[in-house]
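Thread: quick sanity check before group meeting

JM: Hey all, I'm pulling together slides for Thursday and realized we never actually wrote out the predicted structure for the chain we discussed last week. Dropping the sequence here so it's in one place. If anyone has concerns about the input, flag it before I start.
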Amino acid sequence: MTDILNELVSLGEALFRHPNPKERRFASEILTVLFQHDTLQDRDNYARVLFHRQTFDQLQQELTSDSHPGTIGNLPQSNSPEDEEDDAYILPLARTLNALSLSGGQEPLEKRTPLSLLQAMVESFFTFGPNMASFLFSKLQMAVRFENFEITASSRLKVGTLVQLPSMDLKKFPWNSCKMSASLVLLLAAHATPESLYETLKTQSRSMGGMPTRESLASSISDSLSVKFQRAKRAALEEGKTTVMGVTLVDKYIFELLGRSVAEDYFSFSHTFVMGVGPEGVVIWQGFGEHGYRLDEYIRDGHAGVRSWDEAKQFVADFEKLASAKGIWSAKINKLYKKLFLVDINSICSADGPERPVTPRFKAHVKIHCINDVQCQDVTKILWTTNSKWS
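JM (edit): ok, ran it. Output follows.
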């Protein structure tokens, strides 16, 4: 469980151990008031998540009993979302995100921007930790891929938290995956149409046919981040518009090695990140692999703050230098790569490092997916519901 839930469970543990029955009854009365507007199902879910009681009635019966109830530690409990069959663990996160979506759309215009709302929404996704975020993201991913959602008259995207997934494995949803990290940010920024959502998810999905192949790379021209950035900057400063871009640096040489059946012997430098460009500046989001960092760690360490135009200009210039480099992997290339993505490839791919040797030749291709004119209502489009099941 996450730190926040651990703290709540610790409070529940202390409550059950309280020696005074009057204090426990008083606590029961407080809980009744707190959850008076919730449905019976929601009250039962909270009883299971926070107190490990099967129902809210059981929780109150134990608190109001004159005998000392069992502690949480004496009852069967689950420490991870995948062990909880009814998905009760994700309800607090879903409610947190819903509250942000609803309040974000009601703030005065001068106090909200699409980019600031996107920052808040991405950060809030990790309120209850990376495991909970992975669990909820898996629901969003499946809902978008198979269009298992409802778009309301007000352009809200209603997604069910009770979507039943086949053999959910959190190891398949790691936040150090650059593609998954990018998918989250891009889906939150996408317009509330099935087409925009599907195409956005597809750009980061091999199974959906969105990832580059040797054939597609041979027939396509590399995108220019500098050109896309200047266009987005102009839209931001002259028209007040926000653009969100998924940027993928593709390792072309790894495909040549794949043709020789030796690609598995090398570490690919391919990487994806998201750049948001709005009137207030630029924000970059990224996660980086097993030996790098998770998206939530990147945010926690302050890297997803608003960058000035000068800082953004330098980032783009460094990226263009890296993308246009040629020849063997060198100290210069490694320095640029580390400056941009905060990972020292020479270190992790050294003889004493945890990874295989890096791709011996540097050949890069850039692929950029742009979401233009992102609005506040795009960022706050998702409302999580508890009455939709996967079928």
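AS: nice. The chain has two domains: 1-67, 89-382. Confidence is low (pLDDT under 50) at residues 1-10, 68-86.
JM: adding both to the slides.
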